[in-house]
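Suppose a colleague, Dr. K., hands you the sequence of a protein chain of 178 amino acids and asks what its three-dimensional shape might be. Before reaching for any lab equipment, you can write down a predicted structure in token form. Begin with the sequence itself:
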Amino acid sequence: MPGFGDPAARVLLLGLAPAAHGGNRTGRVFTGDRSGDFLFAALHRTGFANQPTSTRAGDGLRLSGAWITAAVRCAPPANKPLPDERERCLPWSAAELELLPRVAVVVCLGAFAWDCAFRLLDPDVRPRPRFGHAVEAEAGGRALLGCFHPSQQNTFTGKLTAEMLDAVLARARKIAAF
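The predicted structure, expressed as tokens, is then:
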């Protein structure tokens, strides 16, 4: 499943994979599930989206300055991609990133996305900075920002709050020099 958003994006949001009952069903990553509901509300509050919700492709959602994609292109069983799936999808992510030359910041939604961003941008970095919420690093000339994934497991338990996600997106906007 391809990503979507503003082709002139300065901020790339990188997630894990389309959810079986969200992006896999609607044809657009983070669309039609609770993770997307949480993410799109934050994107709207921080000025990246024209509306706070999205239920399907073609529902009027437009992103400004941001592009959303996933490290794995299909919904993996139990939401846990195998290493082989990750490797097979990496060239697709690389090709997508090449089409977005203005991207200055990659917001990594979860540790899996953090790992994928390093594999895409600078696979030889050692030691690799450890993932954490609001952790900042650099890879391949781009800034990376860690953010807990907006899954129900994280948002329902308070591990990720709306304020925490808004702060990461505001920081991405500042680094990208909007």
